[in-house]
Amino acid sequence: MAKRDYYEVLGVSKSATADEIKKAYRRLAMKHHPDRNEDDAGASEKKFKEAKEAYEVLKDSEKRASYDQFGHDGLRAGPGRQGGTEGFSDIFGDVFGDIFGGGGGGRRGGGPQVFRGADLGYELMLDLEKAVTGDTVEIDVPTQVGCETCKGSGAKKGTSPESCSTCGGAGQVRMQQGFFSVQQTCPACKGAGTTISDPCVDCHGRGRIRKTRTLSVKVPAGVDDGDRIRLSGEGEAGRNGGPAGDLYVELRVRKHKIFERDGANLACEIPISFVTATLGGEVELPTLNGNVSLKVPAGTQSGKVFRLRGKGVTTVRDPRQGDLFAQVAVETPINLTSEQRELLEKFDTAVKTGGDKHSPRADGWLDTVKRFFDRIS
User: Fold this and answer.
1) How many CB atoms lie within 10 A of CB 76?
2) Quick one: how far is CA 164 from the chain centroid?
3) Mean pLDDT computed over every residue of the chain
4) First-to-last CA distance in the chain?
5) In the 8-state DSSP scheme, what is residue 369?
6) Does 69 lie in the same domain as 26?
7) Is residue 173 included in any domain, yes or no?
8) How many CB atoms lie within 10 A of CB 147?
9) Per-residue burial over 86-113, b = 16 or more CB atoms within 10 Å of its CB, e = otherwise
10) 70-122: per-residue pLDDT in tens?
11) 3-state helix, strand, coil in the chain (%, to 5)
12) Is residue 111 part of a domain?
């Protein structure tokens, strides 16, 4: 009896994509699997193997090209390639592996599994000065380290772990659920691939112990709040010989008493007396590199911002020096003596006679208020 056309078997056109061919085979495999057709297992198995044979050819680009050109006569496959002699679990491992994690043997990976240690986080508080200039800081980090007594094996000194009898040392077992073959972590060894009958007295079979380690962290100049430093291999120790995790040091910069930082720029508030603001003068202005003299022009108003170029900081991403922005805050005198009050009252009377000559903003504001009330009345 002549073989049916493979495209006809799968119910697809000759221009079907690889994905369409796979979907068609998956549908037929589910429909004709003998486990789902116990009343007619013989006929179902025949259709199942026919679909498998068609799929084996059409999923392979070289075989498909040869079949398209020469038909069945163009296929010269070795023993077992066309006959569909594989077990049903192997067949489904090929088609449904992308859903259930693959259909390889129980020794997937070739031996006991190793586990990478967990990554750790540490919050490091810095003063603004240290963040700007950089520093080397020692920190104490509680972590899991390899047990020195058993060298991380978890077994008592002089003994060694034994291969798990449940999974044969693979760390994975295959569970058959109907016509699905599902691979999962071995419940006996928890994926380690080994079991310990005589555990280490210090780590109790875990291969790791809790310990606080002192590490030296080099903080580069110019770091900012929220920056992170990665210390490779300084996290928790791995298991079964796996690599250690990493330590991520997150930097937090304390609030400064004088300066606020915005990237490479600094800002501060500088209080001055109303006399200095009125007559002008020089005031000492702090920077992170020492005090500088700031010249205040006569008639400076409260809120005026002075920009001092190059008096800011650098960042780890940009070596250029930022600027310092100093905002003037004119202080109102308090706790005046009677003599001082009398002098201020005389001064106020003298200023008022000058009108907007001396207080242009106040005089203009009063005119605006007057016009506002005239309009709504």
Assistant:
1) 10
2) 35
3) 82
4) 108
5) H
6) yes
7) no
8) 21
9) eebeebbbbbbeeeeeebbeeebeeebb
10) 777 766 544 334 444 344 444 444 444 443 434 333 334 445 567 788 899 99
11) 30, 25, 40
12) no
Q: How confident is the model at residue 361 (pLDDT cuts 50, 70, 90)?
A: low
C-alpha of 170 from chain center: 31
pLDDT tens for 284-320 read 999 999 999 999 999 999 999 999 999 999 999 888 9
CA dihedral 98, 103, 106, 109 (to 10 degrees): -50
3-state secondary structure of 111: coil
Parallel, antiparallel or unpaired: strands 265-273 and 324-331 = parallel
**Is residue 273 one of the residues assigned to a domain?**
yes
Calpha distance 22→181 (Å, rounded): 18
**Global pTM value:** 0.57
Q: What is the pLDDT of residue 363?
A: 58
Burial of 361 (0-12, 13-18, 19+ CB in 10 A): exposed
User: Do 161 and 195 touch, CB atoms closer than 8 A?
Assistant: yes
Beta-bridged to residue 286, according to DSSP, are: 291
Instruction: Tell me how many domains the chain contains.
Output: 4
Is 187 a domain residue? no
Closest CA relative to residue 323, chosen from 306, 345, 341: 306
What is the domain range of residue 28? 6-85
What is the number of other CB atoms lying within 10 angstroms of the CB of residue 331? Answer: 13
- The count of residues in the chain is 377
Same domain as 240, residue 134:
yes
Comparing 227-236, 332-341, 363-372, the range with the smallest average pLDDT is 363-372
pLDDT at 152: 83
